[in-house]
Design goal:
Blueprint: E1 2-8, H1 15-28, E2 32-36, H2 39-44, E3 48-50, H3 53-56, H4 80-90, E4 95-100, H5 102-114, E5 119-123, H6 139-159, E6 163-169, H7 176-185, E7 189-191, H8 199-213, E8 215-221, H9 227-238, E9 241-246, H10 258-276, E10 281-287, E11 290-295, H11 307-314
Helix pairs in contact: 1-10, 6-7, 8-9
The structure holds 6-O-phosphono-beta-D-fructofuranose.
6-O-phosphono-beta-D-fructofuranose binds near residues 10, 71 and 101.
């Protein structure tokens, strides 16, 4: 069996662990693995690299992706199917594993299925917003990344009381990442794109935290507003000094956590077993806490962020 590994869209911590795990399993069984250098754009250009366990060992602990990704929507071009089939045939590739977030796993597997290309997807995104899975690879690491930052904010908040601090996370238009961090860190308020809020309420909530605890901590998802704009609004609303911190893309480059490394190994094994057993279309998912294979295409909507948690954090 010869498998092509493709990373598409935003990278996520744990991808390298999964790549190494997959390649290690394949080597045990004399199967061959190549990686695309540049997502599907790399595939259409036949820009492949042979992957061996020894090559990948130094990358296991690294964030990002050793085989570069791409957001170029090359498969939407009318001649893409023919080109893709030809590229795979030219390199005797039997099947592929696709690492990607919601955009990649929603739109690409149906095309690959239509073109008769066997593919198993692995949900990789710090946003934890892929339909059909409780957890995506990279989410845990991206959550962990926020804690030393919040601890630092709290230290200075304690030393110099009377201020409001805002922490902006990545997450795009999905609030799962911000919500999980706010919950774990005991923030006084959280804002996510899915749920509307009023400035007056937010000001009151944070002013009360400053009064009772000496500081206010707000976590916001980048999709809500830019933290700088909101900081100005909040300062006017409360008459309190507001300082903002953005995690930015450094959060996506977080070091892979234990949980993500374990998940990466389980996901890679599930994908390998599926392809080895002749599955033609599937996605590795987490359901009821277990890593398992969803056979066929993923359908359905992304679950909204946990409303109960949102209300607990915000004292609604
Ligand atoms: O991959 C998901 C994600 O990191 C989101 O959290 C973020 O909004 C987006 O990608 C950023 O995309 P880009 O790297 O293209 O700026």
């Amino acid at each position: 069996m010869k498998t092509l590994l493709v990373v598409s869209g935003g990278d996520a911590p744990g991808i390298n662990t999964a790549l190494a795990s997959y390649v290690g399993l394949a080597a045990l069984n004399q199967d061959r693995v190549v990686g695309s250098l540049g997502g599907f754009a790399g595939v259409l250009e036949k820009n492949f690299v042979s992957l061996s366990p020894t090559m990948l060992i130094p990358w296991i602990s690294q964030s990002g992706s050793v085989i570069p990704s791409s957001r170029d929507p090359v498969l939407s071009h009318s001649d893409a199917g023919g080109k893709l089939i030809q590229a795979l045939a030219a390199h005797q590739i039997d099947n592929m594993v696709l690492f990607g977030g919601d955009g990649s796993l929603r739109y690409l597997p149906p095309l690959l299925h239509q073109w008769g290309i066997p593919c198993v997807g692995i949900p990789t995104t710090i946003d934890n917003n892929v339909a059909g899975t409780e957890l995506t690879l990279g989410f845990d690491s991206a959550c962990n990344f926020a804690y030393p930052v919040i601890d630092g904010i709290r230290a200075t908040a304690h030393a110099l009381p009377g201020r409001i601090f805002m922490l902006e996370t990545l997450g795009g238009d999905c609030g799962n990442l911000a919500l999980e961090i706010a919950f774990g860190a005991g923030a006084h308020a959280v804002l996510v794109p899915e749920y509307p809020y009023e400035n007056e309420w937010l000001g009151r909530r944070l002013a009360q935290a400053v009064e009772l605890e000496g500081y206010g901590l707000l976590v916001i998802c980048e999709g809500v507003s830019t933290s700088r704009t909101l900081a100005e609004v909040l300062a006017q609303e409360t008459n309190i000094r507001v300082r903002d911190t953005r995690l930015g893309h450094a959060q996506r480059g977080a070091a892979p956590s234990h949980r993500d490394r374990a998940l990466a190994n389980q996901m890679a094994r599930t994908a390998y077993d599926a392809l080895k057993n002749g599955i033609r279309t599937g996605v590795v998912v987490v359901r009821q806490g277990q890593v398992t294979l969803h056979e066929g295409l993923l359908t359905g909507a992304i679950a909204p962020p946990d409303r109960a948690r949102y209300e607990i954090i915000n004292h609604l």
